Amino acid sequence: MDAIIYTSAGGHTRNYAHMISLASGLPVYSLGDSEAPEGGDILFLGWIFAGGVKGYKKASKKFRVRGLCGVGMSPPGEKVMEDIRKKDRPPADLPLFYLWGGFELDKLKGINRLIMFLKAKQIAAAMKKIEQPTQEQRQLLIMATTGASQVKKESITPILKWLEQQGVATLGKERHV
Ligand SMILES: Cc1cc2nc3c(=O)[nH]c(=O)nc-3n(C[C@H](O)[C@H](O)[C@H](O)COP(=O)(O)O)c2cc1C
Questions:
Q1: Ligand 1 in contact with 55 (CB < 6 A)?
Q2: What is the per-residue pLDDT across 46-77, written as a single tens digit (0 to 9) for each?
Q3: What CATH topology corresponds to 3-101+150-175?
């Protein structure tokens, strides 16, 4: 593995990419960075835009994507994984991960901010209608109403384990601070 490449509109995916870089020693670049090792083996992280991983198509032309990770505001689960598979059609054997990101309107700009200004109200209204919301649905309501981050260090553990299987030495969960 040569590097971690990411896209990020509001900073949450960037945070995860940097956490994984710190734990693994792999260099980290944003997708547009001219210093990124073109043609190299990469773990790609992208924020979720309308169900798909932003930048995946572009990244797969420029690099050899060895692992793909979406970061969205939806709680983790099979639904988000299915949406990514449907929208991006990654190879069936490509390791696919999902990390719960965050939504903070003031971190967004331009069209993304405008879309989410409207969309967050819809999400909040839908969550309020649920009679017995799960803990995750409650969190999503808070995220859509006031903005919140679910970025947590422990969430990257499965990715660190996978990197270890690829021969990348990582700091591991217990020493990872
Ligand atoms: C225009 C737009 C569309 C989005 N669509 C989705 C979506 O379909 N599913 C989802 O879970 N999150 C969606 N999100 C939320 C982001 O994926 C989520 O806030 C993510 O953590 C952003 O990562 P970032 O801070 O690195 O940009 C959308 C956000 C924006 C701005």
A1: no
A2: 999 999 999 999 999 999 999 999 999 999 99
A3: Rossmann fold (3.40.50)
